[in-house]
From TrEMBL, chain A:
Region of interest: Disordered: 74-99
The protein, known as: Aspartyl/glutamyl-tRNA(Asn/Gln) amidotransferase subunit C
Enzyme class: ligase
Species of origin: Demequina sediminis
Record flagged with keyword Transport: no
Function description: Allows the formation of correctly charged Asn-tRNA(Asn) or Gln-tRNA(Gln) through the transamidation of misacylated Asp-tRNA(Asn) or Glu-tRNA(Gln) in organisms which lack either or both of asparaginyl-tRNA or glutaminyl-tRNA synthetases. The reaction takes place in the presence of glutamine and ATP through an activated phospho-Asp-tRNA(Asn) or phospho-Glu-tRNA(Gln).
Keyword match ATP-binding: yes
Phylogenetic lineage: Bacteria, Bacillati, Actinomycetota, Actinomycetes, Micrococcales
Record key words, sorted: ATP-binding, Ligase, Nucleotide-binding, Protein biosynthesis
Record EC number: 6.3.5.-
TrEMBL record, chain B:
Broadest EC class assigned to this enzyme: ligase
Organism of origin: Demequina sediminis
Membership in a protein family: Belongs to the amidase family. GatA subfamily.
Protein's UniProt name: Glutamyl-tRNA(Gln) amidotransferase subunit A
Catalysed reaction equations from the record: L-glutamyl-tRNA(Gln) + L-glutamine + ATP + H2O = L-glutaminyl-tRNA(Gln) + L-glutamate + ADP + phosphate + H(+)
Length: 99, 510
């Protein structure tokens, strides 16, 4: 399989929404490459005939009665937010300079 | 019973003494708060640092109410009045919850996890929240955003992880019971290195509603104690179906307390115990003293009538690799919720995207960043089949190996960890070496089966704890307790008491 270089890590960090300094990228790209190399062996035994397991205990769809149950009050749901206004989460502008 | 220091008693003894009116819950809670004050804080000589938050007033309030009800003749649950510590991965209404991460610093959850609610309904005073590796990623607590926990057996060594706080609190006599979570060994490995008992139940056996998710197809909450019976008592409080968790099994809790009592009679006639060749150190990498104590424990099981056979699980060679694909993949998805909007800290940027990226950079530690990046990569287009898809196939192979092994025996056993606890700092810069701690515990998570670690003695070469792991088929959690209680009783007869009593005295502060 492939290897991860510094520019790959920078791209992945952007996708994962984590700012990284140059020092972060240097350190992480070396470590990640070693880990990736170690985990790549999963492909060695994954034959076409082996089904995938996504969930350790097989379960059918789980349903409940369609009845209203108590849920968090609006005030409680907003209580941990860094910023809130008029009963809503308040965030910085959502469109960037390029928009 | 006449006891001078209640922190040394078992939870079962505390419950019996409360019922008999020999002690009050307020006295028990105060004794543990005093112990915490003497050994846990960073300003004490020992600075165990098992707790991230102490709720003295809340615990005493619960204790006073239990004492009043008991005096009034109200019927109470078995563990009512017995104090407990809760891993900081579980949300607790009104009590800070961080999962060991700076990104959740100061967050007070507006609701209780189902397990938290069950602990409250059992009328158990909550002493506080225990330390852990950030979002449960780690095997040493060194990845906690709030500083590591120290192993009470040797304060320079790791207490295991991620639930090092829950395990160290038991070993330091700061709590008789604690709750843990186990994604790849985070209950069993800390139990192993602190000479305590920890159980990962069958996947779905305990509700995860309100547990901050790491890897949802692997995570399971479980009980931690100093004895097998205490652990079983807590298991029955925590377990059972919950409509709030769609993966929760709609089945009765296995009879683990009865199994522990049966095991303590030390008769294992007819029980078939399988030694997993790939996990027994036969192929190297295991410390001599760990192998020695493991072999001696097998001899004890034989002495109680068990038949010991060797089994092979060849796919386990790939389990660690599969785990370190599946876990980062699922974690990268689960941790996307930490977006600076709904809870936790915010580092302001010009736009919401810049704010998210700055917040996550400031709030997450290195190990969390490593795993998110790895998971983002493994799930990305073009690589999904090679990594996540292949890892899920390895999961099938691991399950088949377990099925074949359990066709030949009732339980499987191994050392819990390849070595006794290593020194803090020793592996912090080598992620792969850190990951090897969990080589023997990870297969159970991939297959969803239950596992227990209990003390097997101290390694002769360093005098540090060795853990014995027992694995059972899914839904057969009771077998762990029966075999575990038998081994514990046999060892206690030789030691003249539990191994935890041999831990060195901690220097106490005033």
């Amino acid at each position: 399989m492939s290897t991860l270089d510094r520019s790959d890590v920078a791209r992945l960090a952007a996708l994962a929404r984590i700012d990284m300094t140059d020092a972060d990228l240097d350190r992480l790209s070396g470590q990640l490459d070693v880990i990736l190399d170690a985990v790549a062996k999963v492909a060695e035994v994954a034959g076409e005939d082996v089904p995938a397991t996504s969930h350790p205990i097989p379960m059918a769809n789980v349903h409940r009665e369609d009845v209203v149950r108590p849920s968090l009050a609006q005030e409680a749901a907003l209580s941990g937010a860094p910023d809130a206004q008029d009963g809503r989460f308040r965030v910085p502008q959502i469109l960037g300079e390029e928009a | 019973m006449s006891v001078t220091d209640w922190t040394r008693a078992t939870a079962a003894q505390m419950a019996d003494a409360l019922a008999a009116g020999e002690v009050t819950s307020v006295e028990l809670v105060q004794a543990h708060l005093d112990r915490i004050a003497a050994v846990d804080g960073l300003d004490t000589p020992s600075a165990v640092h098992a707790f991230l938050h102490i709720d003295a007033e809340g615990a005493l309030e619960t204790a006073r109410a239990v004492d009043a009800d008991r005096a009034a003749g109200v019927e109470l649950p078995r563990l009512a009045g017995v104090p407990i510590g809760i891993k900081d991965v579980l949300v607790t209404q009104g009590l800070p919850t961080t999962a060991g991460s700076r990104i959740l610093e100061g967050w007070i959850p507006p609701y209780d996890a189902t397990v938290t609610r069950r602990v409250r309904e059992a009328r158990m005073p909550i002493l506080g929240k225990t330390n852990m590796d950030e979002f449960a990623m780690g095997s040493s607590t060194e990845h906690s955003g709030y500083g590591p926990t120290h192993n009470p057996w040797d304060l320079e060594r790791i207490p295991g992880g991620s639930g090092g706080g829950s395990a160290a609190a038991l070993a330091a006599f700061e709590a008789p019971l604690t709750i843990g979570s186990d994604t790849g060994g985070s209950i069993r490995q800390p139990a192993s290195v602190t000479a305590t008992v920890g159980v990962k139940p069958t996947y779905g056996g305990v509700s995860r509603y309100g547990a901050i998710a790491l890897a949802s197809s692997l995570d399971q909450l479980g009980p931690c104690g100093r004895t097998v019976l205490d652990t079983a008592l807590l298991h029955e409080v925590m377990g059972g179906h919950d409509v709030m968790d769609a993966t929760s099994l709609d089945e009765p809790v296995p009879p683990v307390v009865d199994a522990a009592l049966e095991g303590a009679r030390m008769d294992l006639t007819g029980v078939r115990v399988g030694v997993v060749r790939e996990l027994s150190g036969a192929e190297g990498g295991f410390q001599d003293g760990v192998k020695q104590r493991f072999e001696e424990s097998l001899e004890r099981l034989r002495g109680m009538g068990a038949e010991v056979v060797e089994v092979s699980c060849p796919s386990f060679e790939y389990a660690l690799a599969a785990y370190y694909v599946i876990l980062p993949s699922e974690a990268s998805s689960n941790l996307a919720k930490f977006d600076s909007v709904r809870f936790g800290i915010r580092v302001e940027g010009a736009t919401i995207e810049r704010t998210m990226a700055a917040t996550r950079a400031a709030g997450f530690g290195d190990e969390v960043k490593r795993r998110i990046i790895l998971g983002t990569y493994a799930l990305s287009a073009g690589y999904y089949d090679a990594y996540y898809g292949s890892a899920q196939k390895v999961r099938t192979l691991v399950q088949r190996d377990f099925d074949a092994a359990f066709a030949q025996c009732d339980v499987l056993v191994s050392p819990t960890t390849p070595t006794t606890p290593f020194k803090l700092g020793e592996r912090i810069d080598d992620p792969l070496a850190m990951y090897l701690n969990d080589i023997a515990t990870i297969p159970a998570n991939l297959a969803g089966i239950p596992g227990m670690s209990l003390p097997a003695g101290l390694a002769p070469e360093d005098g540090l704890p060795v853990g014995f792991q027992i694995l059972a088929p899914a839904r057969e959690d009771a077998r762990l307790y029966r075999i575990g209680a038998a081994l514990e009783a046999s060892l206690a007869a030789e030691w003249g008491g539990p191994l935890s009593a041999q831990a060195p005295e901690l220097e106490v502060g005033k």
